[in-house]
């Protein structure tokens, strides 16, 4: 019993070190929030297009084939870093990339797409963030993969890198049966 | 006395957490605004993590506050609004997360540590008290003492 009292603090200390060291060593980003929407159907929404464009984005567009949904904005600095990665992905992935333009002015969004390229099959304008909130987003950029049944299968609340595309996005698209 | 109370009230008033809600965001009905604020204080800001959405200045959070206020104005109950946010952002958004296996440590660690520490402190104090008590001499010791006299 007496010995236990001396050993207990050491055991507790070792336990705490293990608990806190695990996410550090795994390089888990503590600012990322796990989404409860994974494996759930996409939210019901209908967003208008940018002025002068034909097509906006709604829930029905996201059924029938595997697709990528990307939330972006012209005011979002990391989106600029992500833009070339999305352009590359549009060429290699052979799945539609749908854009949700979050809280942006149409003219700013147009200028952004002119400057950095437009990888999107269609873009819906989420001027008041209502649809972003329905997607459980808390910023931009955020990227989702939606399967052919219109269920959210993956979410990344950080800009995509080439490494993400190679190690996560392309393997998952292949697994979900994207052609 | 009155001056003391006034000073105290002023201090308490100044110490209250500063809300980020702008007057133009507030609902016209004060009762509804109070409710919206109470709901917002239970929701954790997903952008800044350590504040409630009522306290956060983040641009995104402003839109979350607006959604809360719209729903309150539309007659939703507090629980319905919290459920709406929970469906989209999970346990993370609740400053008072539900009690379930994933949160057992979170909920049970403080009382468990308090009990453990209390028990430890109690046993140490009792042992120390025991050490102070004078133990009466045994019969053999008494005879020895007598012999010395």
Quantity of strands of chain B, as a count: 0
Q: What class, by secondary structure content of chain A?
A: alpha/beta
If helices are DSSP runs of H or I spanning 4 or more residues, what is the number of helices of chain B?
Answer: 6
| Largest protein-protein interface | A-B, 17 and 17 residues
CATH architecture of chain A: 3-Layer(aba) Sandwich
From the alpha-carbon coordinates, what is the Rg of chain B to the nearest angstrom? Answer: 29 Å
CATH topology of chain A: Glutaredoxin
Overall, the morphology of chain B is elongated
Give the strand order of the largest sheet of chain A, numbering strands 1, 2, ... along the chain. Answer: 5-4-3-6-7
Strand percentage of chain B lies at under 5%
**Major sheet size, sense and barrel closure of chain B:** none
- The low-confidence runs of chain B, each spanning 5 or more residues with pLDDT under 50, are none
Q: Nearest-angstrom radius of gyration of chain A?
A: 20 Å
User: Fraction of residues of chain A in helices?
Assistant: 25-40%
Query: Based on the structure given, which CATH architecture of the largest domain in chain B is correct?
Result: Orthogonal Bundle
Assembly annotation: heterodimer
* Spans where pLDDT lies below 50 across 5 or more residues of chain A: none
Q: Alpha-carbon distance between the termini of chain B?
A: 69 Å
Specify the biggest β-sheet of chain A.
Answer: 5 strands, mixed
Count of the separate structural domains of chain B: 2
Element order, helices and strands of chain A? HEEEHEHEHEEH
